[in-house]
Amino acid sequence: MARTGVIICHCGSNIASVVDVERVALAAGQMPGVTYAATNKYTCSISGQDMIKQAIAEHELDRLVIASCTPRMHETTFRKMLTKTSINPYMLEIANIREQCSWVHTDKEKATEKAIDLVHMAVAKVLKDQPLFTSSIPVHKKCLVVGGGIAGIQAALDVAEAGYEVTLVEREPSIGGKMVMLDKTFPTLDCSACISTPKMAEAGAHPNIRLMTSCEISAVTGYIGNFQVTIRQKPRYVNHDTCTGCGLCEEKCPTKVTNLFDQSLSKRKAIYKLFPQAVPAKPVIDSEHCTMLKSGKCGLCSKLCPLGCINFEDQEDFITETFGAIVLATGYDLIDWAKAYPEYGGGKYANVISGLQFERLVNASGPTEGHIQRPGDGAEPKTVVIVKCVGSRDPAKAKAYCSRACCMYAAKHAHQILEKIEGSKVYVFYIDVRTPGKGYEEFYDKTRADGAVYIRGRVSKIYEEGGKLICKGEDTLIGKQVAVEADMVVLETAMEPAHGSTETAATAGVSADKDGWLTEAHPKLRPVETQTAGVYLCGTAQGPKDIPDTVAQASAAAAKVLGLLAKDELETSPMISVVDAPKCSGCGFCEQVCPVKAISMVDVPSMYNGKRVTRTVAQVNSGLCSGCGACSAACRTGCIDLLGFTNKQILEEVDALWQE
Amino acid sequence: MSDVQNTLRDRVRSLLAEGKISCFIGWGPTRFKDRTIPKFANKPEDAGELVYNEHCLSNLAKYALDFQFSAEVAGIAVRGCESRAINRLIADGRLTRSKLYLVGIPCEGMLENGSTAEKCAFCRHRNPVVYDELIGEPVAEQENPPRFEQVLELESASSEDRYDFWQREFAKCIRCYACRNACPACNCMECYTEQYRTGWQGKQANTLENSVFGFTRAYHIGDRCIECGECERVCPMGIPLMKLNRKLVKDVESLFGSEESGLSDDASHALGCYDKEDLEEFM
Lengths: 660, 283
Ligand SMILES: Cc1cc2nc3c(=O)[nH]c(=O)nc-3n(C[C@H](O)[C@H](O)[C@H](O)COP(=O)(O)OP(=O)(O)OC[C@H]3O[C@@H](n4cnc5c(N)ncnc54)[C@H](O)[C@@H]3O)c2cc1C
Ligand code: SF4
Description:
Chain A is an alpha/beta fold. Chain A has five domains: 4-127, Rossmann fold (3-Layer(aba) Sandwich), CATH 3.40.50; 135-234 and 316-331 and 500-568, FAD/NAD(P)-binding domain; 238-313, no CATH class; 334-496, FAD/NAD(P)-binding domain; 577-642, Alpha-Beta Plaits (2-Layer Sandwich), CATH 3.30.70.3270. A five-stranded parallel β-sheet of chain A has the order 10-7-6-18-29. A five-stranded parallel β-sheet of chain A has the order 20-27-21-22-23. A four-stranded parallel β-sheet of chain A has the order 2-1-3-4, with helices on both faces. In chain A, strand 22, helix 14 (440-450) and strand 23 (453-456) form a beta-alpha-beta unit. In chain A, helix 5 runs antiparallel to helix 19. The longest helix of chain A has 20 residues, at 108-127. Chain A is globular and about 90 Å long. Chain A starts with a strand and ends with a helix. Chain B has two domains: 2-134, no CATH class; 149-256. Chain B is 33% helix and 10% strand. At the A-B interface, helix 17, strand 33 and helix 19 of A face loops of B. Bound molecules: flavin-adenine dinucleotide and iron/sulfur cluster. The site of iron/sulfur cluster has 15 residues of chain A, from helix 18.
């Protein structure tokens, strides 16, 4: 015979002011299997828990129903409490009579009746509860960081500093991301390279960090604490073990290629370092352009290299390693504005440039050594128009969201022009100015005081006339059409997720939102975790943001990783799906509906019609299963059951509901 | 048709003789001129007993399950409906394409009691959608047969009337499970109706339990029904099961924009996948 205990919680007045808890307790006392029923003012408090423990001992209870707040609130609390009693922590049911009753009803009589029903259901279910036991999985104390922008670098450094091994995977030949392309950073205007290259160097030299550049992740299997990740090393054609980075090859290579790091404003060689301070400071060959690789002619670098590092036969390589945690920091790209905005010339005017191109123009290590010159003719522009929100907040043409950093870097760009070009004029077309950050509003104010003219409105058209770029738009504050004649136009374009980042994230079981930004587990309370336990995210991969926010998130993700790696073992929830294999037809429906890919189809020896056969059946990976129950609902044969929510248990609840 | 029958016999004879297949599933004669039954040809000399005429009403696909664990290749005659049923069974993990040899036969509809069979009236795929060889020339498809006509009619009734209608229909059910046995989408190793005390499905033949069975079966095949109409044809009590199935087919098509089931052996189903972008209008 079951000996069920039922505790009805007042939750102060949260429940008791609407539900007649005494009456519920009285009714519970009459329910099948119930040995003991009582109320408690605050069941979750220490004294409340003591009272339960006492009742368990005194009345020899073997299972428990607590009617209180949502199980999301205190189920863990009560399970922990039960570990100190004779009852298995999973012989517990919680009837939610707060969120699902007292908080949403005002009619006391009806609310009390409903509370009785909810308790009745829980009492019926607890009768079918089975003791469940957690198991543990070891944690592989190693972290993988994907993406070597400032987000990935910061996360890697934080984890490495705490004493754990980190592998930092970057698909470009160097880490650094977008930050190293920038000139100065708002609002303090410190030189971007001066603050980011030391971090890159630190990451490159850290004994706990293994840099893997020109690499991508191609497959992830396993689960929290134990991810098996396959990393694809793209061919570099240069042996980085022997190369000293002397630079001779790069100097002598005859093939010139558009330099994308300089945003197409300069040329580089076919054998190249991404930029002078690249980490690792060693070149790679661009196979798309190297004439030797394309047509077997040249090979100059190979002849010149004093250490014989060049290997035109280099192949891609796949490396599989185990990691306990994964951080996704794949960053952003800028939209292809030329496609979305034909009215701005669609790319045909050389002097209409993007913000990132401007960063390279104004950068001392950029193509013009920091002199702001028009790409068209090298002349110094006297009048510059800056257009904000190009592609941001413009759902009809590009993105509905705000790219967050542009308001501030537009002000930065205006400031830089006014500072560097004497007598220059800057007009900034804007929809709003958003400056929520420490020192941001002050920076914007100063830019205007410096002389930047802010015009509220979108630019509707840009065209060339008499050597000038005419920017037409409406000044919505005065309600008039305006036209500004500019020498150069800077478009502050929208950020979008780095190309291929959603696919990379999907490999690691992380989904993206409709715009492709990676989805966090909870926008407020779990901002750097994902729905896949053990996989974290940070930086602009999650959504547009500036460097301070990126770095803060990176350190937050590192803290989460450290919390995980500090453990030797992880307890796994026993509330997972189990397959009754003999019943399984192997249709694979469960495999398809499982959001965390916990189900795989396996071949098992079996008997069929008196013969030994091999059949395909579903198998649940207990490390991955999150216990959502989707598979159990999808299974037509009913051969998958979710422990703790078995079909029988749910049916008992339903039955209890219609029994008067 | 006698041409098709002759070619079929010849082909099966040589396929068996060459050892390409170990058995062929087709139709065979009965005592009645206007009736055929499924026929298994195991030896070349059996081929001469195969029949193909306008009375080949049975959908043969499910008999292929008899060979699911066989090491050899089984041959089977497939018209539009059989071919889609075979795709269904492959998609559901019950058959392996490489262990089947499909002899395609374009079909212009079968006769039932002297006129076009009900199940052929709404057919949209008279030509097999998959085969290894084809006997005869492809035939013209029926243009937009009004497959949802009966559903629309039913949808126009009030929910009470519809409820009463189905209660009346399922009151007739004798729980013989002929519908399930004939259905290519009902292919579980162990049907839930066979299970002891599931708790939600009683085995008694009464209106309530019968309709729980009928509706559950309809849901189980909702996004996988190939509209072959076998269930309705084999029901000894004349329950219009295709009205129910087509209602679900229509809903799945309009809600998820999915194509008809069984056109390929691809295992993606409207109701059997997890997608973050799924509509959640009800949440
Ligand atoms: C014009 C402009 C000016 C700006 N100015 C400022 C400023 O003054 N101050 C400020 O705070 N912010 C500024 N920002 C914003 C700043 O650039 C970002 O906040 C910051 O660089 C984001 O860093 P991240 O590491 O998240 O992304 P990223 O810098 O984009 O780094 C992502 C890295 O991941 C790599 N990667 C991507 N996908 C994969 C993959 N699948 N596998 C492996 N590696 C991958 C990329 O190659 C890249 O190296 C500016 C932005 C722009 C466009
Ligand atoms: S319960 Fe959810 S997570 Fe677990 S196997 Fe089923 S669908 Fe996957």
